[in-house]
């Protein structure tokens, strides 16, 4: 939510003055590049890029120095093990690198490479460091929750091939790993075709442990010529890698901070190529388009790799590979007919280069077109080489396989997918209650109001400012009248001050992150001097839970939920605004090893705390996090951090949120309105119209901005924003059903074109429009000033209908759709049934028992299908069957609409059905209504389980002819069928 700018405020008034002046004179805010490393300033990145350049420059003579020892290989129960030997100097023993290739039941493969010497602890750390000696090998403990069952049927090929080992694995053995011994490399094949290659370019590089050789001081005194020669000689003798730049091996400084690097160089790098694949997606979080651009310079390309090093990047810049707050090292490669992927499970600072290589057609082989290979180069500072390979073949297959490993998104409470109103800050409990009343007065729906850091007493979490938040319980009671919630911020930095039981506890129990000497690490954040809770420590997470009990966090209530910010962690005076890499976490792992996991351990601890606030009160927690890693989806929602109130940031938010969706963490959104700066009313309105498509939908604003609650915009803006909010609320059943699908299959909640139409090459890089769940709803948010129409790309030949007036758009290609300010461009793809709740309410909680409207959108074959998932939106009873899951189908052949159960009965099913027995379908709208219905005035309705007399009854029917360009449509008035029951509406009778 904020920035070091505000932080510096507490440091020096002068700085504030300067930044205020800067803001006055430069309309556009800017990221401070000098605060963050480029690849060139990050020793291991620079070294590995140089390694790649050297390999490319000497491509004919270059051989990767890694060889698999064939004698060492064995395959047992789905796991291939062996030793890779890295040759270093002529006479030196090669470095032994244990290799494990695990073939998984899911059809995925996992390749792990360790380093024997470090594994055995057979190394010496510098500076008497207490750090662990091994390469970090616990990322899986935090990131993985399943999917690791071994494919015992994996088998070696019975044909001997010199220099290769071939393993068949996966369903029906259709997948193959072809392992080359010299140099070591792997090709992953599906149905005989290679899709993923490891070390094809020879960039595998595991920086092995070596002792630092101090150069004798007297050499320096000798003549220059001699000296140079002497050093060159020494280099050859001591460090086998000739010509390698040792400058960043032992120590690295940046921005006045020095990293002591007790283990020396330890980077791990590998090239992964996707032959025939032109597009790669994923590896959030970056402010980039969906289809990732190349990174090694050239026209319109980036010159730095994509960086993954969770950071508090203040006023971040768009169209940049710079790191942001979270990291998911999961990438998909996509081409017509195939999607594959890799998950690089490493939590250290990571850089990913992407280049595309065009292969020209061979003039002699007619019919073979030129194709593009995407080549990637993954570089991490430390840890194991640990990579999962997914062979698809569909986008959903890859995303689901990744989700089976790292978990699917948690099922949210229903309020959490409604509208959130936030600001830094609502200044008092009276202010909160006033905003709450004003929403009601203007009939604007909202569910949650948020408190940023100012609610606390002097930035001490778990306290309230006694002057401004006098009666938080009364405030929350008022919110609860409309089933509304409060979200309060709690960050991981704990104020280092007297008379504060939280810091006292943390110190006495030794639960804080330690500095390199093993003492509690002290740094600066919002409260000034602070310590950081170390949630890698199970004792710290257990203690963290106790702080949220209602009698501990006094003033919190059952409708209080939590926002975890600054958990990268943000440290104002630390290197790159975070912790020193040589800090120590639980188990003496260096911060370097675990940095990208840090935020997740914290929000997970908060999730567990909310779960257990009170014995017997078991409800789904809601936690928002800024920092994240693979697995964060299991316990939090995320937002894209500190964006700007500019059109460009509105535009950039769509691909960013889409990217979260295809990367396994779909509960995502951007600050509506833009965090920094004051949006024009037009921008604010358009941002709400776009924000209704973020799975996580929150308006937020910086403390220096003017108030911008929707009711303040004035006519016509307030009315238009209210219409947008109502549309979100009307479609909450669609969103909830999409969340359920994400929760059970990993499917994205909002979906890019390539995911929905994986064979439509023209649409692979389309990232400015989205489909909502499986509903066929296709939205194109307006992201340009002064727009009155948008161009929507349609990939298929289904009819698409305007959501509001049923105008028909049909035919693959671009279609112009009107979009004056009051109009939200939203189409319905033919072939779907969309469940809605049409009664406007003030909060989602008040809609719980509202009736449904079904919109049947007939496809070109005259059929349509859709689904609805429904539960209490609050507890975990759905896990015991307390839910409704229906499939609706319209079948042209039988001329009828049916609802069938697709749920599984559990112990709590009947009770829930009973609770919902009066919730009915009150209206059926058919878009693209069949001509044969013309003149019809009633239809026949039958319902299972109803009384004999009621079993077949009539319902009123109206048929409307569409005006020019618009679809015919029909309405069934109040068929009175239960939403939880089986029923049929017969249009022929
Ligand atoms: C989350 O918390 C659970 C329960 O304490 C723990 O088992 C798990 O390892 C934690 N996961 C992460 C990612 O912190």
From TrEMBL:
Keywords noted in UniProt: Endoplasmic reticulum, Glycoprotein, Glycosidase, Hydrolase, Signal
Domain Glycoside hydrolase family 31 N-terminal, chain residue ranges per copy: 98-353
EC number assigned by the record: 3.2.1.20
Signal sequence bounds: 1-30
Sequence ranges of Basic and acidic residues compositional bias: 207-241
Entry's family note: Belongs to the glycosyl hydrolase 31 family.
Protein name (database record): alpha-glucosidase
